[in-house]
Amino acid sequence: MPGVEDYRKQQVREYLEFDEAAKLPPTLATMYPELADEFEVKEWHCPECDHTKTWSEVSEPPDADSEPICDQCAKRSSSLSLMQVSLDSDR
């Protein structure tokens, strides 16, 4: 995931211990699963449709520089593609 490679485990741990209301972001929970066992992890929110999932339900992104794929967006995209194929075949 872009932008988080500079967060060292000890820095993250110290922050979470200092601020009791803080939650571990899903990206860092994936990087440091042992911290996810100790601290609460935020839900993942899709930036496109605002669908949420627990961090453990989020599948790995296709590559390290991309976001995880949202099931809801994938279903909608699949439905739209099928509709387009259907419309194209009617012509």
From TrEMBL:
Keywords: Exonuclease, Hydrolase, Nuclease, Plasmid. One of its GO terms (molecular function) is exonuclease activity. It comes from the Archaea. This is CRISPR-associated protein Cas4, RecB family exonuclease. It comes from Halapricum desulfuricans.
